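TA notes. Do not distribute before section.
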Amino acid sequence: MALTAAQVQKLNVQFKGIPPEEIISWAVKHGQTPVVTTNFRPYEVAILHAISEVRGDIPVVWCDTGYNTPKTYKHAEELTKRLNLNIQLYVPKQTTAHRDAVMGIPQIDDPRHAEFTEQVKLEPFKRAMADFKPDVWFTNLRKGQTALRDSLDILSLSKDGVLKVSPFYHWNDTQLDTYLKKYKLPNEHNYFDPTKVLENRECGLHS
């Protein structure tokens, strides 16, 4: 799906306030190779449910860092079965045990932190994108999460020209709680991202 920046801007005005399912349906209709990425963090269930309601066979790329909490892994298993997700698992090339022995989890000011982030998150993500070559990339980015994400919108273009679609971009936690309650969907707040340290720090995939 090739769109100009001007077309994206115009569509964002049109899509504001539109139900997520309609935005997803539009993107699926106009795209050829859509994917959705997830890490099963809090409220990820909303985008996964909405996607599955529109089209159940879209690849769900999960780049598992290997450092998720037991509750997150159980949550992922539950959602995969309940929503019949087409999970495509990507993991680092080095095992967590190996990395723990030689590096551990570097602090944010440690020079090795960039290498750590590349190993556990960026390299698996790049590998997944190279395999699927998507023209539409569904995410659950929302306004207010980070400074970078505040500069985006429902639709945005990645540096590689892929159309990122974030149907819940303008939704707040209260609205998402209502959505989860309506569809009786579980949430999971016991989530750990070893690359971010701070909740409002960008993870690196969207920069």
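Switch to the second chain here.
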Amino acid sequence: MPESKEKKSLGILALAGLEPYQEKPGEEYMGEPQLEHFRKILNAWRNQLREEVDRTMNHMKDEAANFPDPVDRAAQEEEFNLELRNRDRERKLIKKIDKTLQRIEDDDFGFCDSCGIEIGVRRLEARPTAELCIDCKTLAELKEKQMAG
């Protein structure tokens, strides 16, 4: 299996080379050790996404060919379009990661934007860019579903 495929299947924690955070008794929520843990996760995730962007640019430059057969040309264009859509989603995710890193610097990370309670270390390890606690996110998804249906 190629290295890039292997790396993609790794979880965010494994990508950062970290173990799940073990809270110490009496430890303050989102104290410096926890914030540093999430900084490492977010920076590793952002670096991995940037590597994918570079890899795509090189791939598209190296693989670009003017095939005489229209079917071959169409297949290559479709492959490039799919890659570009994926990179666009990753570009948006990089912006969200940058926003989350700024929230850490602003001391606004780890608390729900809607109700203000702690989001929780495990939820943030699963989705480091989360801005809502699980209850508020569930309610938001239900409202979205009702508006769409």
